[in-house]
Design a protein that fits this description.
Helix content is 47%, strand content 12%. The protein has 290 residues and is of the alpha/beta class. It has a 5-stranded parallel sheet. A 4-stranded parallel sheet has the order 8-6-9-10, with helices on one face.
Length: 290
Protein backbone atom coordinates (compact mmCIF):
# COMPACT_ATOMS: atom_id res chain seq x y z
CA UNK A 1 0.00 0.00 0.00
CA UNK A 2 2.81 2.36 0.93
CA UNK A 3 4.56 1.64 -2.35
CA UNK A 4 1.34 2.37 -4.22
CA UNK A 5 1.09 5.81 -2.58
CA UNK A 6 4.71 6.57 -3.46
CA UNK A 7 4.12 5.65 -7.09
CA UNK A 8 0.94 7.76 -7.20
CA UNK A 9 2.78 10.71 -5.72
CA UNK A 10 5.54 10.40 -8.32
CA UNK A 11 2.95 10.32 -11.10
CA UNK A 12 1.21 13.44 -9.76
CA UNK A 13 4.54 15.27 -9.38
CA UNK A 14 5.54 14.32 -12.90
CA UNK A 15 2.21 15.49 -14.25
CA UNK A 16 2.54 18.85 -12.45
CA UNK A 17 6.09 19.22 -13.75
CA UNK A 18 4.93 18.47 -17.29
CA UNK A 19 2.05 20.98 -17.11
CA UNK A 20 4.26 23.69 -15.61
CA UNK A 21 7.01 23.30 -18.16
CA UNK A 22 4.44 23.17 -20.97
CA UNK A 23 2.84 26.42 -19.82
CA UNK A 24 6.18 28.18 -19.54
CA UNK A 25 7.20 26.83 -22.92
CA UNK A 26 4.26 28.68 -24.46
CA UNK A 27 5.28 32.06 -22.97
CA UNK A 28 7.12 34.38 -25.34
CA UNK A 29 9.03 37.09 -23.52
CA UNK A 30 8.49 40.57 -24.97
CA UNK A 31 11.75 41.78 -26.49
CA UNK A 32 10.75 45.21 -27.79
CA UNK A 33 11.56 48.61 -26.31
CA UNK A 34 12.39 48.93 -22.62
CA UNK A 35 11.52 51.89 -20.43
CA UNK A 36 15.03 53.25 -20.90
CA UNK A 37 14.62 52.97 -24.67
CA UNK A 38 11.54 55.20 -24.53
CA UNK A 39 13.43 57.72 -22.40
CA UNK A 40 16.47 57.67 -24.70
CA UNK A 41 14.28 58.24 -27.73
CA UNK A 42 12.52 61.16 -26.06
CA UNK A 43 15.80 62.81 -25.03
CA UNK A 44 16.90 62.82 -28.67
CA UNK A 45 14.07 65.24 -29.45
CA UNK A 46 13.70 67.47 -26.38
CA UNK A 47 16.03 69.60 -24.33
CA UNK A 48 16.64 69.15 -20.63
CA UNK A 49 16.96 72.08 -18.27
CA UNK A 50 19.09 72.14 -15.14
CA UNK A 51 17.54 72.74 -11.74
CA UNK A 52 19.50 76.00 -11.46
CA UNK A 53 18.16 77.39 -14.74
CA UNK A 54 14.66 76.15 -13.95
CA UNK A 55 14.81 77.93 -10.57
CA UNK A 56 15.93 81.16 -12.26
CA UNK A 57 12.98 80.93 -14.64
CA UNK A 58 10.64 80.08 -11.77
CA UNK A 59 11.71 83.26 -9.96
CA UNK A 60 11.69 85.65 -12.92
CA UNK A 61 9.26 84.42 -15.57
CA UNK A 62 5.65 83.87 -14.52
CA UNK A 63 4.60 82.91 -18.05
CA UNK A 64 6.44 79.58 -17.93
CA UNK A 65 4.30 76.65 -16.83
CA UNK A 66 5.80 73.89 -14.71
CA UNK A 67 3.96 70.69 -15.66
CA UNK A 68 3.86 67.96 -12.99
CA UNK A 69 3.29 64.65 -14.79
CA UNK A 70 3.28 62.45 -11.67
CA UNK A 71 0.16 60.84 -10.21
CA UNK A 72 -1.20 62.65 -7.16
CA UNK A 73 -0.22 59.71 -4.96
CA UNK A 74 3.43 60.85 -5.17
CA UNK A 75 2.74 64.33 -3.83
CA UNK A 76 2.65 63.37 -0.14
CA UNK A 77 6.08 61.76 -0.11
CA UNK A 78 7.99 64.17 -2.34
CA UNK A 79 5.92 67.36 -2.42
CA UNK A 80 5.41 69.51 -5.48
CA UNK A 81 6.46 72.84 -6.96
CA UNK A 82 4.07 75.67 -6.22
CA UNK A 83 2.18 77.14 -9.19
CA UNK A 84 2.59 73.91 -11.13
CA UNK A 85 -0.03 72.54 -13.50
CA UNK A 86 -0.86 68.95 -12.58
CA UNK A 87 -1.22 66.87 -15.72
CA UNK A 88 -0.47 63.18 -15.01
CA UNK A 89 1.34 61.36 -17.79
CA UNK A 90 -1.58 59.06 -18.57
CA UNK A 91 -3.88 62.02 -19.28
CA UNK A 92 -1.32 64.30 -20.91
CA UNK A 93 -2.06 63.73 -24.59
CA UNK A 94 -5.81 63.86 -23.96
CA UNK A 95 -6.00 67.00 -21.79
CA UNK A 96 -3.02 69.12 -22.85
CA UNK A 97 -4.73 71.15 -25.59
CA UNK A 98 -7.71 71.85 -23.36
CA UNK A 99 -5.62 73.06 -20.43
CA UNK A 100 -2.82 74.73 -22.43
CA UNK A 101 -4.41 76.21 -25.56
CA UNK A 102 -1.42 78.38 -26.54
CA UNK A 103 1.15 76.31 -28.44
CA UNK A 104 3.94 78.82 -27.73
CA UNK A 105 3.58 78.80 -23.93
CA UNK A 106 6.97 77.97 -22.34
CA UNK A 107 6.64 74.57 -20.64
CA UNK A 108 8.89 72.69 -18.22
CA UNK A 109 7.81 69.15 -17.38
CA UNK A 110 8.95 67.39 -14.24
CA UNK A 111 8.43 64.09 -12.44
CA UNK A 112 10.28 62.29 -9.65
CA UNK A 113 13.65 61.74 -11.34
CA UNK A 114 13.27 63.05 -14.90
CA UNK A 115 12.42 59.98 -16.97
CA UNK A 116 8.64 60.34 -17.27
CA UNK A 117 9.00 64.08 -17.77
CA UNK A 118 11.34 63.54 -20.72
CA UNK A 119 8.78 61.27 -22.38
CA UNK A 120 6.00 63.76 -21.55
CA UNK A 121 8.01 66.63 -23.03
CA UNK A 122 8.49 64.67 -26.27
CA UNK A 123 4.76 63.96 -26.40
CA UNK A 124 4.03 67.67 -26.00
CA UNK A 125 6.40 68.47 -28.85
CA UNK A 126 4.59 65.92 -31.01
CA UNK A 127 1.28 67.56 -30.06
CA UNK A 128 2.61 70.80 -31.54
CA UNK A 129 3.96 72.77 -28.57
CA UNK A 130 6.96 74.83 -29.57
CA UNK A 131 8.78 75.62 -26.32
CA UNK A 132 9.14 72.50 -24.15
CA UNK A 133 11.91 71.34 -21.80
CA UNK A 134 12.09 68.77 -19.01
CA UNK A 135 13.65 69.19 -15.57
CA UNK A 136 16.88 67.24 -15.16
CA UNK A 137 16.69 65.07 -12.05
CA UNK A 138 13.04 65.87 -11.42
CA UNK A 139 11.52 66.93 -8.12
CA UNK A 140 14.20 65.05 -6.16
CA UNK A 141 16.97 67.19 -7.63
CA UNK A 142 14.92 70.36 -7.09
CA UNK A 143 14.26 69.44 -3.47
CA UNK A 144 17.87 68.37 -2.78
CA UNK A 145 19.02 71.81 -3.95
CA UNK A 146 16.88 73.38 -1.23
CA UNK A 147 14.43 75.01 -3.64
CA UNK A 148 10.86 75.66 -2.42
CA UNK A 149 8.59 72.66 -2.14
CA UNK A 150 4.97 72.47 -1.08
CA UNK A 151 4.40 69.62 1.38
CA UNK A 152 0.77 68.93 2.20
CA UNK A 153 -0.80 66.08 4.12
CA UNK A 154 -3.81 66.41 1.85
CA UNK A 155 -2.01 66.40 -1.49
CA UNK A 156 -2.88 63.24 -3.33
CA UNK A 157 -5.35 62.07 -0.70
CA UNK A 158 -8.65 60.95 -2.19
CA UNK A 159 -11.45 61.91 0.17
CA UNK A 160 -14.50 62.16 -2.02
CA UNK A 161 -17.35 64.41 -0.86
CA UNK A 162 -20.43 62.34 -0.07
CA UNK A 163 -23.01 64.62 -1.70
CA UNK A 164 -24.49 64.66 -5.19
CA UNK A 165 -22.63 63.22 -8.13
CA UNK A 166 -22.62 64.80 -11.61
CA UNK A 167 -25.05 62.07 -12.64
CA UNK A 168 -27.45 63.22 -9.92
CA UNK A 169 -27.46 66.76 -11.33
CA UNK A 170 -28.05 65.39 -14.83
CA UNK A 171 -30.91 63.18 -13.69
CA UNK A 172 -32.56 66.14 -11.98
CA UNK A 173 -32.18 68.20 -15.14
CA UNK A 174 -33.70 65.47 -17.30
CA UNK A 175 -36.64 65.31 -14.93
CA UNK A 176 -37.44 68.92 -15.81
CA UNK A 177 -36.23 69.16 -19.40
CA UNK A 178 -36.81 65.65 -20.74
CA UNK A 179 -34.59 63.44 -22.83
CA UNK A 180 -33.53 66.01 -25.40
CA UNK A 181 -33.46 65.63 -29.18
CA UNK A 182 -31.11 63.90 -31.60
CA UNK A 183 -28.93 66.03 -33.89
CA UNK A 184 -31.16 65.09 -36.83
CA UNK A 185 -34.30 66.14 -34.98
CA UNK A 186 -32.64 69.39 -33.88
CA UNK A 187 -31.77 70.13 -37.52
CA UNK A 188 -35.36 69.42 -38.54
CA UNK A 189 -36.66 71.82 -35.90
CA UNK A 190 -34.25 74.53 -36.98
CA UNK A 191 -35.32 74.12 -40.61
CA UNK A 192 -39.04 73.99 -39.93
CA UNK A 193 -39.32 76.95 -37.54
CA UNK A 194 -37.22 80.05 -38.20
CA UNK A 195 -37.95 81.30 -34.69
CA UNK A 196 -35.87 78.50 -33.15
CA UNK A 197 -32.77 79.72 -31.34
CA UNK A 198 -29.78 77.45 -30.76
CA UNK A 199 -27.54 78.41 -27.84
CA UNK A 200 -24.05 76.89 -27.74
CA UNK A 201 -22.42 77.00 -24.28
CA UNK A 202 -19.19 75.18 -25.20
CA UNK A 203 -16.03 77.08 -24.26
CA UNK A 204 -13.77 78.88 -26.71
CA UNK A 205 -11.12 76.23 -26.08
CA UNK A 206 -13.53 73.46 -26.98
CA UNK A 207 -14.58 75.25 -30.15
CA UNK A 208 -10.94 75.76 -31.09
CA UNK A 209 -10.23 72.05 -30.59
CA UNK A 210 -13.36 70.83 -32.37
CA UNK A 211 -12.90 73.45 -35.07
CA UNK A 212 -16.60 73.87 -35.86
CA UNK A 213 -19.90 75.37 -34.80
CA UNK A 214 -23.48 74.62 -35.78
CA UNK A 215 -24.68 77.10 -38.44
CA UNK A 216 -26.78 79.84 -36.88
CA UNK A 217 -25.85 78.96 -33.31
CA UNK A 218 -25.28 81.71 -30.76
CA UNK A 219 -22.12 81.18 -28.72
CA UNK A 220 -22.59 82.14 -25.08
CA UNK A 221 -22.02 80.83 -21.57
CA UNK A 222 -23.60 80.21 -18.19
CA UNK A 223 -22.50 83.56 -16.76
CA UNK A 224 -23.95 85.59 -19.62
CA UNK A 225 -27.23 83.68 -19.53
CA UNK A 226 -27.76 83.88 -15.78
CA UNK A 227 -26.15 87.14 -14.67
CA UNK A 228 -26.59 89.56 -17.57
CA UNK A 229 -29.46 90.81 -19.72
CA UNK A 230 -28.24 88.59 -22.57
CA UNK A 231 -31.42 86.48 -22.64
CA UNK A 232 -33.74 89.49 -22.43
CA UNK A 233 -32.01 91.03 -25.45
CA UNK A 234 -31.50 87.83 -27.44
CA UNK A 235 -34.67 85.90 -26.60
CA UNK A 236 -37.24 88.32 -25.15
CA UNK A 237 -40.21 85.98 -25.77
CA UNK A 238 -40.51 83.16 -23.23
CA UNK A 239 -42.32 81.02 -25.83
CA UNK A 240 -39.44 81.07 -28.32
CA UNK A 241 -38.21 77.53 -29.18
CA UNK A 242 -34.71 77.15 -27.74
CA UNK A 243 -32.24 74.31 -28.35
CA UNK A 244 -29.09 74.25 -26.22
CA UNK A 245 -25.86 72.45 -26.97
CA UNK A 246 -22.25 72.16 -25.82
CA UNK A 247 -19.37 69.92 -26.84
CA UNK A 248 -20.86 66.62 -25.58
CA UNK A 249 -24.39 67.43 -24.41
CA UNK A 250 -24.16 67.43 -20.62
CA UNK A 251 -23.80 71.19 -20.05
CA UNK A 252 -26.39 71.70 -22.76
CA UNK A 253 -28.80 69.70 -20.61
CA UNK A 254 -27.89 71.63 -17.46
CA UNK A 255 -28.28 75.03 -19.12
CA UNK A 256 -31.62 73.91 -20.58
CA UNK A 257 -32.75 73.26 -16.99
CA UNK A 258 -31.58 76.74 -15.99
CA UNK A 259 -33.55 78.28 -18.86
CA UNK A 260 -36.65 76.34 -17.81
CA UNK A 261 -36.22 77.66 -14.29
CA UNK A 262 -35.85 81.18 -15.71
CA UNK A 263 -39.29 80.85 -17.27
CA UNK A 264 -38.60 79.76 -20.85
CA UNK A 265 -41.30 77.27 -21.84
CA UNK A 266 -40.01 75.59 -25.01
CA UNK A 267 -36.48 74.40 -24.26
CA UNK A 268 -34.62 71.23 -25.18
CA UNK A 269 -31.01 70.18 -25.81
CA UNK A 270 -29.03 68.17 -28.35
CA UNK A 271 -28.16 64.67 -27.18
CA UNK A 272 -24.39 64.28 -27.47
CA UNK A 273 -23.90 67.95 -28.30
CA UNK A 274 -21.65 69.28 -31.03
CA UNK A 275 -19.65 66.05 -31.20
CA UNK A 276 -22.80 64.07 -32.02
CA UNK A 277 -23.87 66.68 -34.58
CA UNK A 278 -20.47 66.45 -36.23
CA UNK A 279 -20.48 62.64 -36.17
CA UNK A 280 -23.91 62.58 -37.82
CA UNK A 281 -22.48 64.51 -40.78
CA UNK A 282 -24.78 67.52 -40.50
CA UNK A 283 -23.66 70.94 -41.83
CA UNK A 284 -21.02 72.81 -39.82
CA UNK A 285 -19.36 76.19 -39.91
CA UNK A 286 -15.64 76.58 -39.35
CA UNK A 287 -14.93 78.11 -35.97
CA UNK A 288 -13.06 81.41 -36.15
CA UNK A 289 -11.58 82.54 -32.85
CA UNK A 290 -12.10 86.17 -31.93
Amino acid sequence: MKRRFVISGLIVAAACFFLTTSLFAQVEVARGKSGNDFVKEAKEHVQEISKEEAKRIYDTDKTTLFIDVRPHSEYIEHGYISRRLDLPAGKLIFDARMRMPNKDTPLITYCKKGKRSAIAAWQLVQLGYTNVKYLEGGILAWRKAGYPIVMSAYAGVINMPPGKTPEDFLREAKGLVGGGVSPAEAKQRLDSDIRTVILDVATRREHAILGNTIPGSILTGYGAIVFTDFMKKTVPDANTPIITTCSAGKRGLLIAKVLKEMGYKNVTYIQGGLKAWKKTGLPLNKYIAN
